[in-house]
Amino acid sequence: xxxxxxxxxxxxxxxxxxxxxxxxxxxxxxxxxxxxxxxxxxxxxxxxxxxxxxxxxxxxxxxxxxxxxxxxxxxxxxxxxxxxxxxxxxxxxxxxxxxxxxxxxxxxxxxxxxxxxxxxxxxxxxxxxxxxxxxxxxxxxxxxxxxxxxxxxxxxxxxxxxxxxxxxxxxxxxxxxxxxxxxxxxxxxxxxxxxxxxxxxxxxxxxxxxxxxxxxxxxxxxxxxxxxxxxxxxxxxxxxxxxxxxxxxxxxxxxxxxxxxxxxxxxxxxxxxxxxxxxxxxxxxxxxxxxxxxxxxxxxxxxxxxxxxxxxxxxxxxxxxxxxxxxxxxxxxxxxxxxxxxxxxxxxxxxxxxxxxxxxxxxxxxxxxxxxxxxxxxxxxxxxxxxxxxxxxxxxxxxxxxxxxxxxxxxxxxxxxxxxxxxxxxxxxxxxxxxxxxxxxxxxxxxxxxxxxxxxxxxxxxxxxxxxxxxxxxxxxxxxxxxxxxxxxxxxxxxxxxxxxxxxxxxxxxxxxxxxxxxxxxxxxxxxxxxxxxxxxxxxxxxxxxxxxxxxxxxxxxxxxxxxxxxxxxxxxxxxxxxxxxxxxxxxxxxxxxxxxxxxxxxxxxxxxxxxxxx
Length: 615
Ligand code: AMP
Hints:
This protein is of the alpha+beta class. It has 3 domains: about 15-240 and about 305-390, Nucleotidyltransferase, domain 5, CATH 3.30.420.40; about 395-520, Substrate Binding Domain Of DNAk, Chain A, domain 1, CATH 2.60.34; about 520-610, Substrate Binding Domain Of Dnak, Chain:A, Domain 2 (Up-down Bundle). The protein contains 15 helices and 29 strands. Strands 3, 4, 5, 6, 13 and 14 form a 6-stranded mixed sheet that branches. A 5-stranded mixed sheet has the order 17-16-15-20-21, with helices on both faces. Strands 23-22-25-26 form a 4-stranded antiparallel sheet, with no helix packed on it. Helix 5 (about 165-175) links the parallel strand 13 and strand 14 (about 180-185). The longest helix has about 35 residues, at about 580-610. The radius of gyration is 27 Å and the shape is globular. Adenosine monophosphate binds next to helix 7 and helix 8.
């Protein structure tokens, strides 16, 4: 039974407020919470299930459906069904390295450095909004189940996620209407679920083998904070590979290499997974009559088929240990995460490899990350009366970027001391000065945040736009002093300032800024996405005009007129407020001019080849 809260002043019934932990996974997502006054975290069932497939289907009216129902459309309308969106989060097209080819929906390539977008039925979606749809479903369904409001959440990310992937996860949370208390590493969450975190100096190895990915992380607890010593892994290694090995074995030995239809293979894959789970319970043999043929798998054969697969993961474990510069004896605990760690040979191999070290596998490996995230959410919110915690920064710190947007470098609630660096570049050819303006606050637009100071990085050597590498580093020390350094890495030109972010701010003002940030979070992210689309359009217009100026001799007059028309169309779209329309204009101009760029490139290559002729 749920509790009812009555507001004594007004006499009205108030809904409970619950802070949750969310494991936003590549294939499945989970949400958990700690009951009021309780110690244990528990998974919140969503539509009757503990895990929600991280899949979004857009129906004929372009309305999103998330989870189990969306999964059913993976085979009938793959072009309208988005899965594995976590693999695209915070990534530019050049980061994808061929990942996009394995995906059934359409990914837009709009230049190397732009963040990727997904096109579904003529509409353009950013991975942040797609992830936010999953989070929204989790939030809404969990609210319904608990009969409570969920406003605050801790979300987990892989330990190897970079800054932009973490920021994208945070934005997805904001867009879903959640106040993101903290983004924490998945292995850290798993350690918290095992009650680790109290003992300083403890070294923990987290072995996470899921359906499609393998991650191993080494963590050390220092001053109550988890630090990542090293990570290793393979984004294409998981339980699915073992299923494939089993299918291959059956094809060769039971099915006499017969040609199978796609449907038959899909069905066989379900059976392979079934056999795997059955044999994982230490059974001797799995057998089944499949389309009139007897297919079998003994435990011995299963072990043999698994061996190479397990060894691959152990090699990566060795790499992580080497990268952490520690020895096996220094590891205190091992934690198993991910459904595939139910395979008994995995634990057996780890116990043999690490004699005397406890291999923790008591908590459900599918749920352990979400359960740990819920504990973190509970810890943070139970301390909520002291808004200004001494050891964390109460407000985010960042700099101004194109279009008056705030780029957050140190998110609020970060432990101090902390240090973070990010690379930027110029937007205009020959730019020799760059203004670095430092802000504090939670809003997406700098105009609504508090300016802390600014300086100019001058004497940048003149280079084409996009070529300079300007690294901006924020270092916040335990005294609350922020040191901001900007350096052009190619030339070494450097400038810095020191600021005291808390100077002149009362607790009340900090609280007001936090509140304004929370109240406007959702609309702020929407506005940010619109401004980013406008910036992208402006950059493309600039590049297209420059291209026409330089290369018009390679184009006929019809092509020049048509390009100019598309540039003009895009210019007129910049003033609209529908970012889908802006993206359509970008795509139209990009698609039309792409062959011209190739044409110019061909001419340049031919010229270069001629030049290298020794005759
Ligand atoms: P996850 O991505 O963590 O949900 O892991 C899912 C993977 O775990 C899939 O490849 C499942 O086939 C695998 N899995 C689930 N249960 C078992 C089991 N009892 N034995 C072996 N693999 C399992």
